[in-house]
Specification:
Blueprint (H helix, E strand, L loop, with lengths): L22 E12 L2 E12 L3 E5 L6 H7 L10 E9 L2 E2 L7 H7 E4 L10 H10 L7 H11 L3 H4 L12 H13 L5 E5 L7 H14 L4 E5 L3 H7 L2 E7 L5 E8 H6 L4 H7 L5
Parallel strand pairs: 3-8, 3-9, 6-7, 7-8
Antiparallel strand pairs: 1-2, 1-4, 4-5, 9-10
Helix pairs in contact: 3-4, 3-6, 4-6, 6-7
């Protein structure tokens, strides 16, 4: 067992195991190749709805590749090939009749580095809504999205200033607001706070917890304390001897961090490797 002195109890969220009717993604036998390179092998896992799931593991174990399989971003890589099933609300997103563009409206993504459009704060939200055929009151939508991203009070008097003029943490929350504007069901976050200072990082973590009341959040992170603080469920991945990513262990975050079943999990989260 990992010594509890390493992780104080306050770091953990009040996780509870998902019931069978609370599954967002049901992933079965997922394999991914880039050309001839086998990148992910036999990923079988269920991801709970309206919870925060953290994906942890050493660099090069396929965490980001796995995340991108959940909204078919790997389709944009010509050499990528995917086998297996990724069921979202019971429908395999890799079925031929699934439109990847429509899928990405349901499964939004926030990247490691904030990437606001070179437009005003207002237009960053409005543009995303317009290209998705939004026909409602745009002012209300912009305020709603910025409020959801805990940014409205900071920018409401400068909506027509460039989004790129905001601080790094504000830019990342603007990107989250932009993703929320199209009303997704799931938010994928690939190291969303790794480029931010500690105060901005805590704001993003608090936001993740708030959003998990309404959205399924899946976050890749190298920060063990962050995973312990924000997530309900943790997935630990490693690359095998052939550099193919696999899942070693997953379960409620508190169990993974205090009583892991696999020695490799314990070694990783206590800093013995990785």
């Amino acid at each position: 067992m990992i010594p509890r002195t390493r992780w104080v109890p306050e770091m953990f969220t009040s996780a509870r195991p998902p019931a069978t009717d609370e599954i967002a993604f049901d992933i079965r036998g997922l394999n991914v190749w880039y050309g001839t390179q086998h990148v992910l092998r036999d990923i079988t896992i269920q991801i709970p709805r309206r919870r925060v799931t953290a994906i942890i593991g050493p660099s090069g174990c396929g965490k980001s590749t796995f995340l991108r399989t959940l909204n078919r971003m790997n389709d944009l890589i010509p050499t990528a090939r995917v086998e297996g099933a990724v069921l979202l609300e019971g429908k395999n997103i890799y079925d031929p009749d699934v439109d990847p563009t429509q899928l990405r409206r349901r499964v939004g993504m926030v990247f490691q580095k904030p990437n606001p459009f070179p437009k005003s704060i207002y237009e960053n939200i409005a543009w995303a809504a317009r290209i998705n055929n939004y026909r409602g009151n745009m002012d209300e939508l912009v305020e709603w999205a910025l409020t959801k991203a805990a940014l409205w009070d900071e920018v409401k008097d400068k909506l027509h200033q460039p989004g790129t003029a905001l601080s790094g943490g504000q830019q990342q929350r603007l990107c989250i607001a932009r993703a929320l504007a199209v009303k997704p069901e799931v938010l994928l976050m690939d190291e969303p706070a790794s480029a931010l200072d500690p105060i901005a990082t805590l704001r993003i973590e608090d936001l993740m917890r708030d959003l998990a009341r309404e959205y399924t959040i899946i976050v890749v992170t190298h920060n063990m304390q962050q995973a312990a603080r924000v997530s309900d469920v943790t997935v630990f991945m490693m690359a095998d001897e052939n550099q193919v990513g696999t899942i070693v262990e997953y379960g409620p975050t508190q169990e993974i961090f205090t009583n892991p079943k696999d020695k490799r999990t314990e070694d990783y989260i206590t800093g013995r490797f990785g």
